[in-house]
Design brief:
With 153 residues, the chain is an alpha/beta fold. Helix content is 29%, strand content 29%. It is built from four helices and seven strands; from the N terminus they run E-E-E-E-E-H-E-H-E-H-H. It is globular, with a radius of gyration of 22 Å.
């Protein structure tokens, strides 16, 4: 008989972090409903203004998913500040997105003649900063940015 009959869809029980769920298994493959990875901390940046100083408190993992929050934080910085303090105490993980954010922050503070201070670097983000010093990127001010961040730890 043509066309062939559709394959039988069997449901099997899978264990997830939220208990058991039933998902269809087609051709031996199954699709789990999208769930956040266990242990991943969603990223946010809270802002506190103290006179002409702003404190940016980063919280969570700075990875590609954090890009929009980083962009919003940079876009919201006024040009009339005397200093910006970036607190990284609650950031356990950072990839190149964090370096990109740090470069953008450095460019903003340099353009507006604002002092930039960083504090609270945990081991893995600090390792990314140290590793970035060994990158050979033509035309990038990454070395300046990383050295500035490391000098202000």
């Amino acid at each position: 008989m043509w066309p062939p009959a559709a394959p039988a869809v069997a449901a099997r029980e899978l264990r997830t972090t939220r208990g058991a769920c039933r998902v269809p298994a087609v051709f031996g493959c199954s699709r789990l409903p999208p769930q956040p990875f266990e242990g991943v901390i969603p990223f946010s940046i809270s802002t506190q203004y103290l006179d002409d100083t702003v404190l940016l408190m980063a919280c969570g993992e700075i990875d590609r998913a954090a890009d929009p929050a980083c962009d919003r934080a940079l876009a919201s910085l006024p040009a009339t500040l005397s200093s910006v303090v970036l607190d990284m105490q609650q950031v356990p993980f950072m990839d190149v997105t964090g370096l990109h954010f740090l470069c953008g922050l450095h460019q903003h503070t340099t353009r507006h003649r604002t002092r930039l201070h960083t504090r609270g670097w945990q081991t893995q983000p600090r390792y990314v900063l140290d590793s970035a010093l060994h990158l050979d990127l033509q035309g990038a001010d990454l070395h300046t940015v990383v050295r500035a961040a490391l000098d202000r730890l």
